[in-house]
Design goal:
There is one protein chain. By secondary structure, this protein is of the alpha/beta class. The chain has a domain of about 80 residues. The chain is built from 11 helices and 12 strands. Strand 1 and strand 2 form a beta hairpin. Helix 4 crosses helix 5 and helix 5 packs across helix 7. The structure holds adenosine-5'-diphosphate and magnesium ion. The site of adenosine-5'-diphosphate has 15 residues, from strand 1, strand 2 and helix 2.
Length: about 325
């Protein structure tokens, strides 16, 4: 069995575009990634790089004017992009679950949290009684770190704090026992203390439920904390793939290096309120991609070639790939 046969999820050369009045916007431009069983994989990049479009594409939830225009998404060897809608709905409610940044938009405001989680449980397990389903919901809330879970069943979403709502969302996702959880900026709306708790929960879920997780974040720190492997995304493309340790030890792509530099350091002695290093410039307009490397206009290490030719994703080291001319033909500069 080859490596890819053992992967839970394998995305190959995925392309998703938004067909706007101004033209075709390539939000995901040939992205490939894989997720092994029990793995926590990070996808990181600034806002607008195509992370959500990638997540929505995996679940085939891209809304108009967006459309998947090419590539392959396979879950345990089963191609999802050609699945009939009905079967795809089963995948969404079953094998793959998704958690978003703002749980308020995915929770029903007029139903109690307990009712909503119980409904998810009953959808997953036919013949489950209402009381049993509520019992399960309380157990799952507990597993998601909610104190006094039984009491919380009767709460409406707006009665919960942001952190509790996110835990309720996670409980609702997990009650269907998904094999893959896709979490898109799950902690972005939360303060750092609650963020750390939710990230800790993600790791527990992996060991407790054996679920694989794709964790999407604009924050490299969040990814560092939680993930085994990381994909760095820029302007719709994967620009670096690495295990998390090597990525932090020695980032290869200048974009990764710049993201890393913009992280606050634990040993930072600068006075509070000091501005962190930020990457000059902004993500290019995806409707008017620059020729050559999309990061070149912001890159400290750009050479003339970068403005002309788009680099391919090349293996730089064992398990590490990078889309940068500096590493072409195994060279390093
Ligand atoms: N509904 C839409 N219509 C047009 N363009 C969109 C739409 N949704 C997202 N985009 C564009 O797709 C690109 C990727 O967006 P997104 O996937 O949301 O990025 P991220 O999640 O990394 O912040 C951006 O250029 C964004 O403006
Ligand atoms: Mg997003």
């Amino acid at each position: 069995m080859s490596d890819t046969d053992m992967d839970l999820l394998s995305v190959r050369d995925l392309r998703t575009s938004y067909f706007t009045r101004r033209g075709e916007l390539k939000a995901v431009d040939g992205a490939s990634l894989r997720v092994g069983r029990g793995e926590i994989v990070g996808v990181v990049g600034e806002s607008g790089c195509g992370k959500s479009a990638l997540a929505l594409s995996i679940l085939r939830l891209v809304a108009r004017p967006g459309r998947i225009v090419g590539g392959s998404v396979s879950l345990e060897g089963r191609e999802l992009l050609s699945l009939p809608d009905r079967e795809m709905r089963e995948v969404r409610g079953g094998s793959i679950a998704m958690v978003f940044q703002e749980p308020m938009t995915s929770l029903n405001p007029v139903k109690t949290v307990g009712w909503q989680i119980a409904e998810a449980a009953r959808a997953h397990e036919k013949g489950l009684g209402k009381r049993q389903a509520l019992q399960r919901s309380a157990e799952m809330l507990k597993a998601a770190g909610v104190a006094e879970a039984e009491r919380r069943l009767a709460s409406y979403p707006h009665q919960l704090s942001g952190g509790l709502r996110q835990r309720a969302m996670i409980a609702m996702a997990l009650i269907r026992r998904p094999r893959l959880l896709i979490a898109d900026e799950p902690t972005t709306a939360l303060d750092v203390t609650v963020e750390a708790q939710i990230l800790g929960l993600m790791k527990d879920l992996r060991s407790e439920f054996g679920a694989s997780i794709v964790l999407i974040s604009h924050n490299l720190g969040v990814v560092a904390e939680t993930c085994d492997r990381v994909y760095v995304m820029y302007a719709g493309e994967i620009v670096e793939e690495s295990d998390v340790f090597s990525l932090f030890e020695r980032p290869l792509h200048p974009y990764t290096a710049a993201l890393l530099k913009s992280l606050p350091r634990p040993d930072d002695r600068s006075p509070p309120g000091t501005r962190l290093h930020t990457i000059e410039g902004s993500v290019p307009d995806l409707l008017a991609r620059p020729a050559g490397c999309a990061f070149a206009p912001r890159c400290e290490k750009a050479v003339p070639e970068c403005a002309v030719a788009a680099p391919g994703l090349a293996q730089a080291e064992e398990g590490r790939r990078v889309r940068c001319h500096l590493y072409a033909q195994g060279g390093s500069r």
